[in-house]
Design brief:
The protein is α+β, with helices and mostly antiparallel strands. The N terminus is likely disordered. Helix 4 crosses helix 11, helix 5 packs across helix 7 and helix 10 packs antiparallel against helix 11. The chain contains eleven helices and nine strands. A hairpin with a 3-residue loop joins strand 1 and strand 2. Helix content is about 25%, strand content about 10%. The strands form three sheets. A four-stranded antiparallel β-sheet has the order 5-2-1-6, with no helix packed on it.
Length: about 425
């Protein structure tokens, strides 16, 4: 730069004339100095292309035109070898790090500033334009996967009945031996007959709360399976694989069980006549083993609006499968004061009175056992009959995949209503 500004003869080259030739255009110089302890040999080669000022701690050199000079001298000083190039950054840094200082000493970011002749670049004088630094992208955090919510089961509308969710496959799993040739109920108790019978009792296992409805059905079929069981301790599949084996009380099919007739008209208080008919017996029939004339009469009144229908023909309950299921469901759904109904207990509609609480009665499966046969099975150490009822209930609840309350399964601490 000085060579282009000052008149000839005023160049501030300094040093020996051969080392500072400012007589011509612009140049790029390379100076290599080789030193021994006693001799300094300097060789300078200049190619005329540009003007470069190179400054080190020991030498300030400006070259122009093509000149080769060798100077030899002797000294006892110890010197340092220096290699410099016209492309080294020798200029003053720019205040903006994205700028370059041109060969003329001006800062900017254009191609005239940032090129092979720049005297200062933030990235070094490599000959390439200094790129404007681009901020490194901030990596987006890896999203934490959110598990998809499990779909809630579609609620079954009240009024759909058990046929909407209790399938033939469920029925088969409940009763794997129902059609065994040794069972009098073979080919009598069917899934279709149960679903049809339940339609006559719109509130049965039909609240719309599917878990509660499953528990009520499991309780009903558990209790009635005990009443009709053909199982024994070592039965294939276990005792609870033999529910609904018998449709009528064993040993009473020939009309010899005459003990289930209450004299007179025990239904007079209900406004109907259920006095025993001549030649008829009222032993246990159907899933709940409906027995006694005072049960046949009211059920007949409910289903036929005529108590005489079944008083005069009680055997019909063991010959019509839908009627057999309906007899069991009628008993399940009907309260017998002071007892609540089994349905009210399992549907959560019954709350014990103070007297009930004092007697140890509480909602749950155990209370249904108390209602059905509490006088013989409750308020005493748990016997095999109670255990059988409970195990049927637990098995069916498991098949329906519904949790049950284990604290209310038994009735050993409950006083019966008798």
């Amino acid at each position: 730069e000085a060579c282009n500004i000052l008149p000839a003869g005023q160049w501030p080259c300094g040093g020996a004339e051969p080392l500072c030739d400012c007589s011509g255009g612009l140049g790029t110089s390379t100076t290599i100095t080789t030193i021994t302890p006693t001799t300094i040999a300097t060789t300078t080669t200049t190619t005329t292309t540009s003007t470069t000022t190179s400054t080190t701690a020991t030498t300030s050199t400006t070259m122009a035109a093509t000149t080769t000079t060798t100077t030899t001298s002797t000294t006892s000083a110890s010197l340092t070898t220096t290699v410099s190039t016209g492309n080294d950054c020798s200029g003053e840094p720019c205040s903006d790090s994205t700028f370059c200082r041109s060969e003329w000493g001006f800062c900017g970011s254009s191609d005239d500033h940032c090129n092979a002749k720049s005297t200062w670049k933030a990235a070094g004088c490599s000959g390439a334009p200094t790129p404007v630094p681009t901020p490194s992208p901030v990596p987006m955090p890896t999203p934490v996967p959110v598990p998809s919510p499990k779909p809630k089961p579609t609620p079954v509308p009240a009024g759909s009945g058990i046929g909407a969710w209790f399938t033939q496959a469920d029925f088969n799993a409940f009763f794997p031996n129902i059609n065994n040739a040794a069972c009098s109920g073979a080919n009598f108790f069917t899934h279709a007959a149960l679903v049809k019978a339940a339609s006559a009792f719109s509130d049965f296992a039909n609240s719309g709360d599917i878990a509660q409805d499953k528990l009520e059905l499991a309780a009903f079929l558990g209790q009635t399976s005990h009443e009709t069981t053909g199982g024994w301790a070592t039965a294939p599949g276990g005792p609870q694989a033999w529910g609904y084996c018998f449709k009528e009380e064993v040993g009473c099919g020939t009309g010899t069980c005459t003990q289930y007739c209450a004299g007179g008209n025990p239904c007079a208080g209900q406004g109907i006549n259920c006095a025993c008919a001549s030649g008829q017996t009222y032993q246990g029939r159907g899933p709940m083993q409906l027995s006694w004339n005072y049960n046949y009469g009211p059920f007949s009144q409910f289903i036929y609006n005529d108590a005489a229908e079944l008083i005069n023909d009680p055997g019909r309950v063991a010959s019509d499968p839908v009627l057999a299921y309906q007899a069991a469901l009628w008993f399940w759904m009907t309260p017998q004061s002071p007892k609540p109904s089994c349905h009210e207990v399992m549907a959560g509609n019954w709350q014990p009175s103070a007297a009930d609480t004092a007697a140890g009665r509480m909602p749950g499966f155990g209370m249904t056992t108390n209602i059905i046969n509490g006088g013989l099975e409750c308020n005493m150490p748990t016997n095999a009959k109670v255990t059988d009822r409970v195990e049927f209930y637990k098995r069916y609840a498991g098949i329906l995949n519904v949790a049950l309350d284990t604290a209310s399964l038994y009735c050993d601490q409950m006083q019966s209503y008798r």
